[in-house]
Every structure is written in structure tokens, then in C-alpha cells.
Amino acid sequence: MFKYDVSVIIPVYNTEKYVADAINSVLDQSLDSVEVIVVDDGSTDGSLQVLKGFGNKIRLISKKNEGQGAARNDALRIANGEFVYFMDSDDLIERDTLKKCVDRCRRDSLDFVFFDALSFGDGVEVASSHTWFDYHRAALYEDVSDGCSVALDMLGRGIYRCSVCMSLFRRDFLRENGINFPVGILHEDEFFSAIAYANATRVSGIPEEFYRRRVRENSVMTLSFSERNLEGYLKTLELIEPLSTTGQREKLVRELSKAFVHSVMYNSWNLPLASRIRAARRIVARYPYALKLRPFVSMLFKRSVQSLLPSGRSSSGA
Question: pLDDT higher for 309 or 179?
């Protein structure tokens, strides 16, 4: 028997300003049977003191900094809920989120259900037209389907989003399939979501904006593409390769690999030349089917072109 309907897992690292609002949005859920597991991942600001103020309303784990993947895995191992929800510590969820998701999962025996989100700015302007701030997709997938088919359709439409904060997972589905987060890299959601979609036989969407994603300065979403981003993508490409065990899975891995490679090509142009050359060699050797000439050329040469332009001007290239 499960002790709770849902275990909500919230990793925290230096979000003193926001974390209380995030936790309160969970404690205020219309679903009563909710376990809140909060992992302070070695914060160096006042986050831990804020968390201690919640007392026994939350299960608090305090640990040395190992990254979001390790923090989520630690909490997942002790989760007592029938379902698991992963939430970021600077975001919010609507009051009926967990109840509606649990009801839908139970009604249709889902491995997981996903929903929409709405971005809002905190000191940062959010362009609603920007595709990466648009999280509306669930209306296309209200019927029950297998995960591979859903993910492939999303990728084909250009609306695949890997954030685990927009899904509720059946805990036993995760444990039976050994689904955990990779440790020590960025883009851990990319791998987790890939393996979840690859293994799921019953998934569906709820077309409601349950999640409120905060776009702020100095977050993973808004910081410039770095060496760690590059390493995270390259490692994720390696990690998803073993999923290619069937025709559908092989196709999914191929399409996900294309998406990850394109992210590398479009975003890594400002990294040191040695890093770009290393990435280019890896892409040519292992993922030639993902190559596109314009972003590939941009990755290798845009920085050099930018450096030759007069101050204040930018290249009109990719």
C-alpha cells in the first residue's frame, strides 16, 4: 500500500527568493494526500533556513552539492507516493494540478500524463512567440497512446518538450523500468524523458496550463550556452543509444539525436574553437544523419566572423 497519492520532489540550489512560494503552491493543492520531499543540494544562500521553517510539513534532505539529477534520485528512492511529480524550486503549480492528474492516470491506467505550462518573467522579458517559451501541446494528445508514438509525433511537429516538471509519473513505472536521472551533467531531463517515452505503453495529455515556469536571470534556462551544456548534450547522446532495441525505439533515438545535435550546432558557436572542433568531429563521425549545413557552418565559423565585424554589428548568418 502507498502512504500517499503523490510524492512531490523539489531539488533546491540557491533559490532562497522563490522556494517558499514553490513549496506553498504544493502544500495548497486540492489533493490532500501529498508527500513533499525537498532536497537542499548544498545551497550557499539562505535556502536551507527557509526550508527548515516549514518544519514537518515537508521531508527535508540536506546534502552536499551534486547537481539536480542526484538530488532527484535521492528523493525518488524514498518516495512513498503512488505517483511522483518533479518540480523546480523557483516555479509554481495550479491548485488542482495533482488531483486532476491523479484522477486521469487512474481512470486510464496511464504510465504518465503530461500537461501544458505558462512562462512568466521575473526581471526578464518573456517573448510569448519564442518557441522555447511555448509549452502548449497537450490538446493534440488527449487520447491514450504509447510513448514512442507520442514523442515521435511531437518531434515531427517541433513541439517536443522534455521538462519533467510538466508530467506526473506512476512511481512503479519508473522503478520497474529503472528510470533515473543521470548524475553530474546538465540536460538530465533530456535523458529521463527519452527513457520514459521509450518505455511507456500508456500516456496522454491534459490541455491545461497547470505549470507556471519562471524565466529569470542566472537560471539554467537563461544563462549562455557553456562547456557544461555541450558536455551534457554529448553525454545524453551516448546515454540514449542503448534504447534502440526495436523499430519504434530506434526511430525515436534517431529523431531525439537529431534534436540534440541541432541544439549543439545552433548554440555552441561562441565556445572556444577546440570545443567546437571536438563537437564537430563527434557529430560527423557518429551522427551524420543529423547534419545540416547552415548550423554546422555557423557552429564552426560564426564566432570568427563576429570578431571581424565592427563593434555593435552582428552577423546575419545562422
Answer: 179
Indicate the Cα dihedral angle 125, 127, 128, 134, nearest 10°.
-100
Q: Please give the model's pTM, rounded to 2 decimal places.
A: 0.90
Domains contained in the chain, CATH given: 4-216 (3.90.550.10), 227-308 (no CATH)
pLDDT tens-digit readout, 233-282: 999 999 999 987 888 999 999 999 999 999 999 899 899 999 999 999 99
Residues 157/161/166/172 CA torsion (nearest 10 deg): 100
Q: Work out the pLDDT band at 140, boundaries 50, 70, 90.
A: very high
pLDDT digits (tens, 9 = 90+) for 247-256: 899 999 999 9
pLDDT at residue 220 greater than cutoff 70: no
Show the 3-state SS of the chain: CCCEEEEEEEEECCCCCCHHHHHHHHHCCCCCCEEEEEEEECCCCCHHHHHHCCHHHCEEEEECCCCHHHHHHHHHHHCCEEEEEECCCCCEECCCHHHHHHHHHHHHCCCEEEEEEEEEEECCCCCCCCHHHEECCHHHHCCCECHHHHHHHHHHHCCCCCCHHHEEEEHHHHHHCCCCCCCCCCCHHHHHHHHHHHHCCCEEEEEEEEEEEEEECCCCCCCCCCHHHHHHHHHHHHHHHHHCCCHHHHHHHHHHHHHHHHHHHHHCCCCCHHHHHHHHHHHHHHCHHHCCHHHHHHHHHHHHHHHHCCCCCCCCCC
